[in-house]
Design a protein that fits this description.
single chain, alpha+beta, 4-stranded mixed β-sheet, 30% helix, 24% strand
Length: 313
């Protein structure tokens, strides 16, 4: 099933079949959208995956499967000696910090914020996300996006050619699989790729990454992988290039989904009668929606008391 939960205040799609494709900054689950998850003085799973790939093409590859300690020592840990205030206490008179950790934390926060803001700004100008769920009886989705049971849920026909042309992808809920930025003793890695000490511009960072990074893997980690705390949403997504929009209202981009792809419209258990009557009239008076089935959500009775169930209208 492909389900779009909505507020009952947003019924324009019944007139024009337009739906918002949302830039990452406007989604409801910050700060994880279109950002690298931060790792401070520890390495991410993406770092280890990158190290494993480097091992495969290195002279150290003897055909065995390397363990994490081997990968740390040979591919991830910074090399050389680092000068710290702990090693040279006299440096404290010339710096604004008392410990190296204090300095590192300050640097990590600043650098990660700068890189994530640059990434988010770039993605906000490039893509729009259309989010769906796979269940009509998802209580969390009704609460978060269906106006606490006062809204509606539209089921879309995934067999329609629109979704054959623009197939959805299921979101992975794994904190370990997200895109990552690692700060380890002054060394910065993005999905395992070590950044240089200096760049002339953010474009240099982008070009360096593009030369080494797997773009398909990056897109999966950024936009189809979320923190496990969101797993109850069972989200499916379509990523559109914003240039594919059919209509634009200021900074809001809209995409047309044919009326023929509409399958059922379900009212929440608390949708006002006035809204139900208004929507029902709108559907009845529009020939392009004559196939659209109308139904309602309610809480069950007796042994099914705490669960949602669907009833015809």
């Amino acid at each position: 099933m492909l389900i779009k939960y909505m507020s009952a205040e947003h019924l324009g799609f019944l007139d024009n079949s337009l739906f918002r494709i949302t830039q990452p900054q406007y989604l409801n689950d910050p700060p994880g959208e279109a950002r690298f998850a931060p790792f401070y003085n520890r390495f991410s799973e993406a770092d280890f995956e990158y190290a494993r790939k480097k091992y495969q093409t290195s002279w150290l590859n003897d055909g065995t499967i390397p363990d994490d300690n081997f990968l740390l020592k040979n591919f991830l840990l910074p090399t050389g000696m680092r000068y710290t205030v702990e090693m040279f206490p006299s440096l404290r008179g010339f710096v604004d910090y008392e410990t190296t950790d204090e300095y590192d934390r300050s640097q990590a926060i600043q650098i990660i914020e700068i890189i994530n803001n640059l990434l988010l700004d770039h993605m906000n100008r490039m893509i729009g996300i259309f989010s769906l769920s796979d269940s009509l009886t998802n209580h969390d989705m009704w609460i978060k996006y269906g106006q606490h049971g006062k809204g509606i849920a539209l089921e879309l026909n995934k067999q329609h050619q629109f979704f054959q042309k623009h197939p959805t992808r299921k979101v992975i809920y794994s904190s370990e699989k997200r895109a990552s930025i690692t700060y380890y003793e002054g060394c910065i890695r993005i999905n395992g790729i070590k950044l240089k000490d200096t760049y002339k511009s953010p474009l240099d960072v982008q070009n360096h990454l593009l030369n080494e990074i797997n773009l398909s893997d990056l897109m999966t980690r950024l936009f189809f992988t979320k923190n496990s705390k969101w797993s109850t949403e069972n989200e499916h997504r379509i990523i559109f290039n914003l240039q594919q929009h059919d209509q634009r209202n200021g900074n809001i981009f809209l995409k047309k989904i044919p009326f023929e792809a509409f399958k059922t419209l379900t009212f929440g258990w608390d949708t006002p009668i006035k809204t139900i009557e208004e929507v029902s009239r709108k559907i009845k008076n529009k020939p392009a929606l004559s196939h659209l089935k109308i139904q309602k959500m309610r809480y069950g009775q007796l042994e099914n008391y705490d669960n949602l169930e669907i009833v015809d209208i």
